[in-house]
Every structure is written in C-alpha cells, then in structure tokens.
C-alpha cells in the first residue's frame, strides 16, 4: 500500500442540536414474524424461542455468537456470493489490499443491518486483517441465513430477525463483550452502538482509535458530543460523503421503496395520492419512483431550498394538515422525530398506509398508537392494521421502522458504494499516525469519493475523459482530481455548518 495524504478540509462549530437516541420499540401489540416474502428472509420453519436460551457452537468450535439457526449457513453463503457479483469495489479492495493486511490488529465492533451486502463488507474487513464482532442496528432487517454464514466463516455475530427491545440491547452488549474482547474501532449505523459503549464502557470508549458513522441520526449525535466537548475520540462522518448522499440515499431508496410497499400491501400506485415527508436525497428518490408509476405525489418540507427543488421537480409542497384526509399513503423521510403524530393519524382516512423510510425510528408516533382505545391486528410479516373505535383502520408497516430493509431486498450495487467508503474510512482511522486526528468529527475529502466512484465504473464499461494540462490549469485543479472543491457537499448536515477547524487527513489505498 502507498498511503497518500490528500488535502485539507475545513470543519465547523455550529453543530446540530442533539437528537436523543431512538428508543427501540417493544413489540407488545404486533408479533414480529420471522417470515418474509423473500427467500433471504424466510425463516418460517424455525421455532419461535429466543436464541438467547440456546447454547450454540459452530463446527469450528466458535461459541462467541448468538444467531437464529447455524444450519442455514450454506444458504446464506449463496446469498453472499450473489451480492459479491454486484459489489465490485469491495472485491477490488480485497485484491489490491489483501496481501498487506492494512487492518491487521484492528478489532472492529459493528452495528449495521446484517444482510448479504453488509456481509460482503464484513468479510472484506476480515480479509484485510480485522477481527470483527457484529450486531444488528434494526430488529427486522437481519437475514438469519446470512448471519449463519458469517458465523460459519468465523465472524462473531449477535443478531436475529425479530429481536425484542431487550434482546436488541443484549446483542449489542454481547457484541462489545468488554471483559473478554477489547474492540479498538467502531463502525456504526444509527449511533446505538456508539451510544451504548460511550455510556456503559466509558474507559473502553476513550481507548478507541475512532468511530465511523454512516447515518444522519448517528452523525447528529457525534456532532453534539463534539460541540459539548465530550467526544473523546476522532469520528468519520461517512453520511455526508458524496458517495453516500448521492447514491445510497437517492438511488437505494428510489429502487427499494416500491418493492417494500408492493411486497407488503399489493397496492397499485397509478392515480393514488401519496404524501412524502421530507425532500432530501431519500425523499427525492422515493418521489421519483412513485411519480414514475403515476402516483399523485405531495411533499412536506421545512427547508426552502429543498422545497424549491420539489416544486421544480413537479411536486406540490404542502402542509401535512391540509392534505392528510385525502392521501392513500404517508411516507416519512426526514431522519427527525415526531413527524407523524397521533393527531395526524386520527385525521387520515381508513385504509391509509403509513411507513418510514428515514433512518430515525421515532418519525412515527408509536406510543400514540399503543393505547387502549386502538386495536391491533397482525396481517402479514411487518404489516399491522391499527383499528379505531369507529372501525377506521390504518395500515402500519414495519412498526414504523425502516421500510425497505425490513420489508424488501435491497440493490447490492448501490450498497457497494457506501460499504467501500466505510472500509476506506476504517483503514484511514486505524492507520492514521498519532496527532493526525483530534477529538472531533471529520468529513471525507473529494479524492476519496472520487476513488470509490472510480472502482465502480468498470461494471458499466465507462471510460473517463482526461483533462489536458491547459484545461486543468484553467480550472485550477489537478488533472487527476479531485475535481470538486471540499465545500461542494450537497447535504444539509454539512451546509448548515460553518467552518471551524482545518486538518490534513485521509489517505486512500493505491497500488
């Protein structure tokens, strides 16, 4: 490996207000099913007892794990191999970096969705020398067969589809296993793992090399800790990298929103009225997909810039209270909390479908739906009818949790882009010399975004045009990139901040 220091990035001091950790909802009204409509999620043959009650051991003698059924490993391996075909960047990193093991000695504790796609990331980290312990960031998104395949390959996984709230936190704690295994770097999606270690194992947290966070919710928490002077380790904000915002958030949601809705409800969208709350990258992807099927789409927004984009894309921007009685579907895409409250749900017409595509689990007021006057009827896996006293019913999907990763499969290629960025961030943080990173939140430079993007172009047989020396001089850039300045970040988290720090950081793997 040749580690190249790239360039300086300016940081900020006006951080977002602290967003409290989302509470994992106890599944008391709706019995979560271990079934799904895809083969990946199908676990109908399994018993309903908790894996916590079983003593488990793999064929190789590994017992440091807790999953649903180790016997599904062979099927999970096939799913992982399918995902590998659509994740060229990670496979490329294995070929380029595997020999020198840039993560040798790294002990990565991770909390993400455990799917075939993230399994490719986890096994790439292991191929680069890391030891990995993994838990799930969502109680509905774990693919049990994939978890089994990872365990069979020697990865310690503590997760299964349909965990309770207590089991969710137990899995995270077992994954950390502070008394028997000392992790030295975190990969998080949502901030729950970071929050847990920070509060329960503060001494361990201070010894970490750093934190890599990919979600807007987790990033908000890190910025707030930094603002309060309580962030004791450096952190990488992957969420605001261009390769995350412009691909994962946009195209991932554009391709998966319809599948999640159709698999759970069988709804036809032509002519249906849909309200999308939030017109960030996730909202843009959802709106584009729904519009393409002939749906009448309305948008709610708090940001005038995003609202203007929605208007110019042909969507009517409206207040929720003015349209609720007419819409057939309500989709939250904000990453905020208390977006759809009980008073909103009371106004919706019978049969309205309500779901969440944002990272936060608190966008829909679940507490307001779990009251004695409302009746819950479990209809399908991740589908519940909430019935009002007058007979009106709302169709609630995934109990307000992330729809696409709870109710459908996801496009491997788009996730390859995000996963490659996460891998590069982990390598950089782990190998950074003492003093390169302070106790702050860092953004990724354009050179890394461009490098990750370049790893995916061969799949399309795409060939880049090279600037002439004169053209590069005219533009004031290197002919080899980066081609955009560091302030070119079209994500609200970054644009809402002002410059504070300047640090030289980030190296990428080049052969």
Automatic annotation (TrEMBL):
Q: Which SMART domains match?
A: AdoHcyase (SM00996), AdoHcyase_NAD (SM00997)
Q: Specify the superkingdom.
A: Eukaryota
**Entry binding sites for substrate:** 115, 189, 214, 244, 248
Q: Which residues bind NAD(+)?
A: 280-285, 301, 404
Q: Which PANTHER family match?
A: ADENOSYLHOMOCYSTEINASE (PTHR23420), ADENOSYLHOMOCYSTEINASE 3 (PTHR23420:SF2)
Q: Which family does it belong to?
A: Belongs to the adenosylhomocysteinase family.
What cofactors are annotated for this protein?
A: NAD(+)
User: Which InterPro entries does UniProt cross-reference here?
Assistant: Adenosylhomocyst_ase-like_sf, Adenosylhomocysteinase-like, Ado_hCys_hydrolase_NAD-bd, NAD(P)-bd_dom_sf, S-Ado-L-homoCys_hydrolase_CS
Indicate, by first and last residue, each region the UniProt record lists as having compositional bias (Low complexity).
28-42
Keywords recorded for this protein, A-Z: NAD, One-carbon metabolism
> Per the record, GO CC terms?
cytosol
Q: Where is this region: Disordered?
A: 16-60
Q: Where is the S-adenosyl-L-homocysteine hydrolase NAD binding domain?
A: 249-410
Put simply, this protein is called S-adenosyl-L-homocysteine hydrolase NAD binding domain-containing protein
As to how many cofactors bind and how, the note says: Binds 1 NAD(+) per subunit.
Q: Might you name a Gene Ontology BP term for this protein?
A: S-adenosylmethionine cycle
Classification of source organism: Eukaryota, Metazoa, Chordata, Craniata, Vertebrata
